[in-house]
Design goal:
Number of helices: 12
Largest sheet: 8 strands, mixed
Number of strands: 24
Distance between the termini: 79 Å
CATH topology of the largest domain: Aminopeptidase
Structural class: alpha/beta
Shape: elongated
Oligomer: single chain
Number of domains: 2
Radius of gyration: 26 Å
CATH architecture of the largest domain: 3-Layer(aba) Sandwich
Helix content: 25-40%
């Protein structure tokens, strides 16, 4: 009877321990965050000293696996003494760095406590594509997508990953990626902040024991993430891709979990998402160590909403305007393109109208209802300013209320492409005189930069500057940057 009661109680105790652990991971995160990494755009030279420092830390093993095409070190950091090998690899796409940052946070945690690894030996490859990371590009130095090179193994980075898996005969694998912030959980307005997949190992998408275990672990991870990003988890498409590493890892016998980090409102550098990565990966290692995934069901995995891609940065609905004497009412889907600086370390935004029409099935991180407002194309301030300093001294709310959305400036420094002010700049040296006798363009154009005014009772209420909303009613400036055109 006592043995029977213990069996009944064990899952309850284990669930309680897991709950306490993930809450502890989340709540204590700031103690372990690697503060030298604060943005998405970091390079191999910034993490190599962190890797080198681990060589002297008790319990850590650092192995040089090989070098990238351009000669950068690709290292593996191993922690734990258990018999079950777990392999995690990140940034095989050089512009997908969120999990890489989280891995260094995890190292800081494991420096103080490795008890969750009781039965595991965990191996991390934190930047598989350092050449891509150098220029914040998906592909490697010769343009190959490493995640489509699992069969031919044309690149040294691909060979390194395959050889490492084979030498370890890793029982579990975590394939860590970033996905577009425009994915949403199917039929909801919530971003797919995380998307999971237990990759298929054949075209039939059969579920064998290994893939079934991956699904069960995902169920447990989803339960944890729901605590911090409720309703913001999607299930990635499981169509078999015969060239991809995740699919082949599953085929080669490694129980593989794909984690895609997407978007989260007001988290452009994905630092909150990084925190949840840290929490969920540490929790997953503990779940594997205790085998606390066996009570999860495949139905629970299949109930996770599929990924969809119907999100915009800004959705403006019910926008009415006239063109060639005809009145239209449309919705706008606006996205913010990131334009990098020359050394790929920072960026600014260019807003773009990505869709026009009936967007009732689509959503926005932010939504503005333009019903009842009058649309007006913003005008250019008639006075040409002498220089940028004169521009900075302007009273922007007053100018916007007068109907202006741009100012012409002479002697603009060539290196300035954007500003932090809610007004676009027209560089006098770049002004092009329009040709006559041309049918005027629509004031709303697909692919164009959204800059206009919304008024009520002849009073400007909102200015849309470079796709960002400036509210004159409360002087709230949500404009990330204006443009220099």
């Amino acid at each position: 009877m006592i043995k029977y009661l213990l069996i009944l109680l064990f899952p309850i105790v284990s669930f309680s321990q897991n709950k306490i652990l993930h809450e502890n991971f989340f709540n204590s995160y700031d103690e372990f965050k690697e503060t030298s990494i604060e943005t998405r755009r970091f390079k191999h030279g910034e993490i190599q000293p962190l890797i080198d420092s681990l060589k002297s830390i008790k319990g850590f093993e650092v192995t040089l696996l090989g070098r990238s095409i351009q000669g950068r070190d690709i290292s593996m950091i191993s922690v734990g003494k258990g018999e079950t090998d777990v392999l995690l690899w990140s940034q095989m796409h050089g512009d997908e760095s969120t999990a890489t940052a989280a891995i260094f946070d995890i190292f800081n945690y494991l420096k103080t406590d490795q008890s969750i690894l009781k039965n595991l030996k965990v191996h991390f490859i934190p930047m598989l594509n350092p050449d891509g990371a150098e220029v914040f590009s998906r592909r490697n130095a010769i343009g190959i997508d490493i995640n489509r090179d699992a069969l031919k193994l044309q690149s040294p980075e691909s060979q390194i990953l395959k050889n490492t898996r084979d030498s370890l005969k890793a029982e579990f694998g975590f394939n860590l990626h970033d996905q577009s912030k425009y994915y949403n959980a199917n039929k909801t307005d919530k971003p797919a902040t995380f998307s999971f997949l237990a990759p298929a190992f054949n075209h039939e998408k059969d579920i064998n024991e290994s893939r079934g275990i991956a699904m069960r672990i995902i169920v447990k991870m989803n339960e944890i993430i729901q605590r911090y990003a409720k309703g913001q988890v999607g299930r990635y498409d499981d169509a078999f891709e015969p060239r991809a590493f995740g699919d082949n890892m599953q085929r080669w016998g490694t129980t593989t979990i794909l984690i895609e980090s997407g978007g989260f409102l007001n988290d452009p550098e994905k630092q909150f998402i990084r925190k949840i990565n840290y929490t969920s990966i540490l929790s997953a290692l503990q779940i594997i160590s205790t085998e606390n995934y066996t009570n999860a069901s495949l139905d629970q995995y299949l109930s996770i909403p599929k990924n969809d891609r119907k999100l915009y940065d800004l959705k403006i609905k019910n926008l009415s305007f006239s063109y060639l004497g005809i009145d239209f009412t449309v919705d706008l889907g606006i996205q913010y393109d990131e334009i990098e600086n020359t050394n790929h370390s920072d960026f600014y935004y260019i807003g773009k109208i990505n869709d026009i029409g009936d967007l009732s099935t689509h959503f926005g991180y932010e939504t503005l209802d333009a019903a009842g407002f009058s649309f007006k194309v913003g005008e250019t301030y008639p006075k040409i300013l002498n220089d940028f300093e004169q521009f900075k001294s302007l009273d922007f709310p007053i100018l916007i209320s007068q109907g202006y959305t741009s100012v012409t400036v002479n002697n603009m420094p060539k290196e300035i492409k954007f500003t932090s002010y809610p007004m676009n700049i027209i560089d006098l040296e770049k002004v092009v005189i329009p040709k006559n006798n041309v049918i005027p363009k629509s004031p709303i154009g697909f692919g164009s930069n959204p800059t206009f005014l919304l008024s009520k009772n002849d009073k400007v209420v909102y200015a849309v500057i470079n796709g960002f909303v400036y509210s004159l009613s409360d002087n709230k400036n949500n404009v990330k940057n204006g443009l220099v055109k």
